[in-house]
């Protein structure tokens, strides 16, 4: 390998490696937002989750013969934005009657000697006096802390107390008891640890925030994600799209919102807190705003009514950057931050690729550029790295001359290893690339290794790839909506996945400018290792929580025009192998009747060539999804599946499963399979070229290339502050690779450098609560250096060499 310091290449954006926050997996409430009380304002509702109600996470407590009841009401609310509150009716207090909050996960985590700040709003029906005892207890009623509050008003008043825990427990409860009779009304019951990130009252959970800060992210994208655009067009509706103005100001007046990941958002973590956190960790804020278009439900604000939506975008820029003599700059100052937040980027939409989005996007971009030309505006290219939708997104982005285009892809490790050169031939004159969401499907060492390999390619192309962030970032282990994730936590622990440490290694060792580097192989014929060949294996049909009747199943040879296999299902055939489901073949059809079972499939074996066609007719009988064709099935964990009507009957996806991990290769949305209608499905396989048809209409057309592993993935850069040359190398091969490193364009190399290495005892190794640092980078001095030296890169390793230069 030769690294030439006299040939600097692209400048590395100082903000290149960032973080992405979306409130899924309870990333905010029960996560980064340090509130310990779940459903503190009694606003949980079946709109959020069919199992929710206004007293979710709460229960009645009566002790010593007490007789009492609790219910919720809305007649005289603390805030009209959060109208629900709890009413405690005490007939006989006994030794205490009241209510208990169960917290998140196993309960409320408390530590011996730590202080906790309690607040709530309360009022009496009359102006009498009511004692309320605030207690932190174990599940067996052992007392950790207590305080006494006297409620003396018929009006809503906020009361406060500080509790110091005498013990440590991860399953504590907050209990509010009174020994008085009559009626108490309570709302916004809150408990925060005193030790929050940067010691902010009502702030962020310290351990999670610290892990994010230690990534040293150049930017943070927030608040989503699909969370941004999945909702109604009405800003006042509980299930509205994410509207930033509803998330600032007094937390008691922020309207509770349905989270599209099937839970509730208190909005305690809102836009002001996002900007504040970005400032605290030195990350540029990158907010994502809805484009007045919901792709999930086809909702579109009329073009002549986009004014309020565009105003929201302009007002947000003013809120972040405006002087204190502007309306929204003054609002920011009123909240405690007179200085601007320094907003540079704004994204309009998330993953949208349909005409409804592209009709609306330019109105936002034009308005922003007219008033704020300094702001870079980001357009979308959809959720996949290839295909018609992706190309449409890029074509429109070029037409609009967007500053950046937001690319998303979740893929198999093999995809990342095979796409090292993805951006080598990208158009350098058009919009730049923002990789706003990416991850390989898993948190094992091999996933992180593949991502690291791919990231060297991103860095080599820093003239076109300007911003990148792994996604998602946070997951509460007891409330998982999505896997994989960068950081995992419960109510008292948090740890970084192996993927986290890869992101951190690149962020901390980025450099300022890419240097020219070349690798010469010996022997030169060993360019890469192919990991798969033709698409062959069992072929069949399937369903997912859907009852389907299949008919006239045929597998034919494309070249010879002959038939390998044909079945009209007049009776049951022993050739069919049922993997899952209630299948029966009779009377000209093959029926899978269960609507409860997932991934039902039945396949046959056919000795096909490299060129074959699968044809079948299908009728959906009942259920939530559509039709499936399986092909190239080697076993239960290795196959291809075309899912027409997937993701609750709205997508057509072509997916590939390798070693039990399934990922989408290509997809289109706005697909719906009608119950009772007959569809003719066809899959043509020619080598690795796959075409999918419905009623002779081409739906998918792609080449799934042979997966390859390069002999070494690498890039080099120069850090001006330290003078270091940084060489990043990922050896994804099993064997150690000996490399002769030659540095050109430098006078001298220091005799001692530094090596930072990430490796593991197994490709399946991963960090966990029990072993949070099973796989972490190891740093050590590197000696015996010169302008030319030999280094052995271990098999399956991520290595960064920092070499001192004069």
Automatic annotation (TrEMBL):
<dbReference type="InterPro" id="IPR055235">
    <property type="entry name" value="ASD1_cat"/>
</dbReference>
<dbReference type="InterPro" id="IPR051563">
    <property type="entry name" value="Glycosyl_Hydrolase_51"/>
</dbReference>
<protein>
    <recommendedName>
        <fullName>non-reducing end alpha-L-arabinofuranosidase</fullName>
        <ecNumber>3.2.1.55</ecNumber>
    </recommendedName>
</protein>
<keyword id="KW-0378">Hydrolase</keyword>
<dbReference type="Pfam" id="PF22848">
    <property type="entry name" value="ASD1_dom"/>
</dbReference>
<dbReference type="GO" id="GO:0046556">
    <property type="term" value="F:alpha-L-arabinofuranosidase activity"/>
</dbReference>
<dbReference type="Pfam" id="PF02018">
    <property type="entry name" value="CBM_4_9"/>
</dbReference>
<dbReference type="InterPro" id="IPR013780">
    <property type="entry name" value="Glyco_hydro_b"/>
</dbReference>
<dbReference type="Pfam" id="PF06964">
    <property type="entry name" value="Alpha-L-AF_C"/>
</dbReference>
<dbReference type="InterPro" id="IPR003305">
    <property type="entry name" value="CenC_carb-bd"/>
</dbReference>
<dbReference type="InterPro" id="IPR010720">
    <property type="entry name" value="Alpha-L-AF_C"/>
</dbReference>
<feature type="domain" description="Alpha-L-arabinofuranosidase C-terminal">
    <location>
        <begin position="436"/>
        <end position="797"/>
    </location>
</feature>
<dbReference type="InterPro" id="IPR017853">
    <property type="entry name" value="GH"/>
</dbReference>
<dbReference type="InterPro" id="IPR008979">
    <property type="entry name" value="Galactose-bd-like_sf"/>
</dbReference>
<keyword id="KW-0732">Signal</keyword>
<dbReference type="GO" id="GO:0046373">
    <property type="term" value="P:L-arabinose metabolic process"/>
</dbReference>
<comment type="similarity">
    <text>Belongs to the glycosyl hydrolase 51 family.</text>
</comment>
């Amino acid at each position: 390998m030769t690294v030439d310091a006299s040939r600097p290449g692209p400048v590395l954006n100082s903000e290149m490696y960032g973080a992405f926050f979306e409130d899924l997996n309870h990333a905010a409430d029960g996560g980064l937002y340090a509130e310990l009380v779940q459903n503190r304002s009694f606003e949980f509702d079946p709109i959020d989750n069919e199992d929710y109600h206004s007293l979710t996470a709460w229960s009645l407590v009566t002790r010593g013969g007490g007789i009492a009841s609790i219910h919720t009401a809305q007649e005289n609310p603390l805030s009209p934005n959060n109208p629900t509150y709890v009413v405690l009716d005490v007939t006989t207090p006994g030794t205490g009657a009241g209510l208990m909050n169960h917290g998140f996960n196993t309960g409320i985590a408390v530590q011996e000697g730590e202080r906790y700040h309690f607040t709530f709003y309360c009022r009496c029906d009359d102006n009498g006096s009511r004692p309320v005892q605030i207690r932190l207890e174990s599940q067996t009623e052992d007392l950790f802390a207590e305080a006494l509050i006297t409620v003396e008003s018929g009006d809503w008043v906020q009361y406060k107390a500080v509790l110091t825990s005498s013990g440590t427990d991860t399953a504590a409860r907050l209990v509010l008891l009174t020994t008085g009779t009559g009626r108490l009304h309570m709302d916004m019951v809150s408990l925060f640890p005193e030790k929050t990130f940067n010691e902010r009252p009502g702030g962020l959970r310290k351990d999670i925030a610290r892990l994010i800060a230690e990534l040293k992210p150049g930017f943070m994208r927030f608040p989503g994600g699909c969370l941004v655009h999945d909702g109604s067009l009405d800003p006042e509706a509980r299930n509205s799209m994410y509207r930033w103005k509803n998330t600032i100001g007094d937390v008691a007046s922020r309207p509770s919102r349905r989270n599209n990941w099937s839970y509730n958002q208190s909005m305690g973590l809102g836009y002001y807190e996002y900007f504040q956190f970005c400032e605290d960790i030195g990350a540029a804020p990158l907010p994502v705003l809805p484009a007045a278009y919901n792709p999930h439900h086809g909702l579109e604000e009329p073009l002549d009514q986009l004014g309020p939506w565009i105003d929201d975008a302009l007002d947000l820029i003013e809120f972040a950057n405006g002087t204190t003599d502007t309306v929204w700059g003054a609002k920011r100052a009123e909240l405690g931050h007179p200085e601007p937040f320094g907003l540079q980027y704004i994204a309009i939409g998330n993953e949208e690729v349909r005409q409804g989005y592209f009709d609306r996007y330019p109105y936002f971009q034009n308005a922003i550029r007219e008033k704020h030309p300094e702001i870079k505006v980001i357009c979308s290219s959809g959720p996949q790295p290839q295909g018609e939708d992706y190309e449409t997104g890029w074509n429109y982005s070029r037409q609009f001359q967007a500053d950046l285009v937001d690319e998303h892809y979740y893929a198999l490790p093999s995809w990342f290893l095979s796409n090292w050169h993805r951006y080598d031939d990208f158009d350098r004159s058009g919009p730049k690339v923002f990789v706003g969401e990416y991850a390989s499907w898993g948190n094992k060492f091999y996933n992180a290794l593949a991502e690291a390999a791919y990231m060297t390619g991103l860095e080599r192309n820093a003239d076109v790839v300007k911003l990148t962030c792994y996604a998602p970032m946070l997951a509460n282990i007891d409330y998982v909506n999505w896997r994989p994730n960068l950081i995992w936590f419960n109510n008292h622990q948090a740890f970084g996945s192996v993927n986290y440490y890869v992101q951190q290694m690149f962020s901390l060792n980025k450099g300022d400018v890419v240097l020219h580097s070349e690798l010469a192989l010996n022997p030169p014929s060993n360019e890469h290792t192919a990991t798969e060949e033709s698409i062959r294996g069992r072929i069949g049909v399937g369903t997912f929580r859907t009852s389907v009747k299949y008919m006239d199943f045929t597998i034919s040879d494309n070249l010879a025009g002959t038939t390998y296999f044909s079945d009209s299902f007049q009776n049951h055939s022993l050739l069919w192998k049922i993997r899952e489901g209630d299948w029966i073949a009779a009377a000209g059809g093959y029926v899978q009747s269960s609507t409860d079972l997932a991934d039902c499939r039945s396949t046959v074996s056919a000795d096909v060539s490299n060129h074959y066609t699968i044809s079948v007719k299908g009728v959906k009988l009942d259920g939530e999804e559509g039709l499936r064709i399986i092909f190239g099935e080697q076993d239960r964990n290795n196959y291809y599946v075309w899912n027409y009507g997937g993701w609750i009957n709205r997508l057509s996806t072509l997916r590939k499963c390798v070693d039990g991990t399934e990922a989408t290769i290509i997809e289109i949305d706005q697909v719906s399979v009608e119950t009772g209608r007959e569809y003719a499905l066809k899959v043509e396989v020619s080598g690795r070229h796959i075409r999918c048809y419905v009623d002779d209409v081409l739906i998918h057309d792609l080449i799934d290339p042979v997966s390859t592993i390069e002999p070494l993935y690498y890039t080099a850069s120069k850090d001006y502050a330290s003078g270091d040359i940084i060489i990043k190398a990922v050896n994804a091969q099993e064997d150690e690779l000996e490399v002769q490193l030659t540095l050109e364009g430098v006078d001298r190399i220091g005799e001692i450098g530094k090596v930072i290495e990430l490796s593991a005892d197994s490709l399946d190794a991963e960090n966990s609560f029990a072993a949070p640092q099973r796989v972490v980078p190891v740093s050590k001095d590197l000696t015996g250096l010169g302008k030319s030296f030999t280094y052995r890169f271990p098999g399956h390793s991520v290595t960064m060499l920092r070499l001192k230069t004069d």
